[in-house]
Specification:
6-stranded parallel sheet; about 200 residues
Length: about 200
């Protein structure tokens, strides 16, 4: 059975709508891992790399900040990736949201509150500066992007296309609904798995 690792967005968790919908879509055909990612980016990248080493997924699927992470680890770890609405400028997103917040879906550790501060923004800035350094020409066709036409948060398709070849659209917003995952993400993920 194939294995997919889903990487959620910044405000989300492994229990967010896209994660659960992807797991439901592949029920009985592929195992979909949907872990909660650490809030701090370097810790998140380390966690993802360890999980990949341990679980050996066949495909990464990300959304927003999760796609930011997936792009950085995919080619270096030899895994294709589907990037949903990748947010390649997390610092811009976070600077407008300094303060206390709550995750939009439950986390396994029970912690729902978090704080965005300058230190966190600086951590993202360090990764942003090097995020495309490990782009491998061999992965130009193995990292695909899917972009919501109603996305009001991330507009990075042109930047994506500077590095990768396959770009797709769906008629939704930044965070896909369960139906949009079934209709748009599922067929792309299935196609990528068949190309392995």
């Amino acid at each position: 059975m194939k294995k997919i690792l889903f990487l959620h967005g910044f405000y989300a968790s492994g229990q967010c709508v896209p994660a659960l919908a992807l797991r439901d879509s592949f029920w009985g055909r592929a195992e979909v891992l949907t872990p909660d990612l650490p809030m701090h980016p370097k810790e998140a990248i380390g966690f993802i790399r360890e999980l990949i080493d341990c679980e050996k997924p066949d495909l990464l699927v990300g959304n927003s900040c999760g796609s930011f992470y997936a792009q950085m680890v995919a080619s270096t770890m030899g895994i294709p990736a589907l990037l949903g609405n990748p947010h390649f400028r997390m610092t811009e997103f976070l600077k407008q949201r300094i303060g206390n917040h709550q995750y939009k879906s439950p986390r396994k550790d029970g912690k729902q509150d978090f704080t965005i501060n300058e230190a966190l923004i600086e951590e993202f800035a360090e990764l942003e500066a090097i995020q495309f350094n490990d782009c491998n020409p061999c992965y130009k066709d193995r990292i695909w992007g899917v972009f919501g036409e109603q996305d009001t948060l991330a507009h990075f398709e042109p930047l994506f296309l500077e590095h990768y070849s396959h770009s797709f659209h769906f008629p939704g917003g930044h965070t896909p609904t369960a139906e949009e995952v079934h209709t748009w993400y599922l067929p792309l993920a299935e196609k990528m798995l068949k190309l392995l």
